[in-house]
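Subject: Cytochrome b5 heme-binding domain-containing protein structure
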Amino acid sequence: MDQNYIDKQAKQGKVIVVIKKLVYDLTEFKTRHPGGFKILEKYNGYDATRQFEVLVRHSQKAQEMMKEFVIDSFQDRKQKVTWEFIRSNEEKLYVVIENNLYDCTEFVDNHPGGKEILELYKNQNATEAFKQLGHSKEAREKMNLYKIGELEHKKAEGNSQKWLLFLIGVVVAYIYKSFFH
């Protein structure tokens, strides 16, 4: 199950959360939740692992009860992708932030800063802009749900840089030898 499905379900009034890579439908449980339904709605569509495990330590009984609400596992996509892959998918709105690839295609209309900013960085590296805007902790948590891969660092690029340095060294040595000896 991916973020697109979760977003669609949340828009249709369902209460869907991700906890430890499992997707939970808490729609029927929200009125019985001991902490109230507003907290569930606050994290609707989000990864609530930190809130469930750290901020509010749930009892073993609560953790056992959660099993009946599991509907699927969340697809944690950590595929290695290249710039060629990113730029060859023109129908998608991909954004790279800190070497991670995010598919913002379904999120673009819901982006709090407006869709224009995401479209401006379509299929590009938006790391600096993302850092400068000072996104909230909540925004950073939500973006993990849109992550589909990590940018691959090709060894060939590293080798070509070494090759270039070698050539520069040869040229410098040739110039030095020609003019100073």
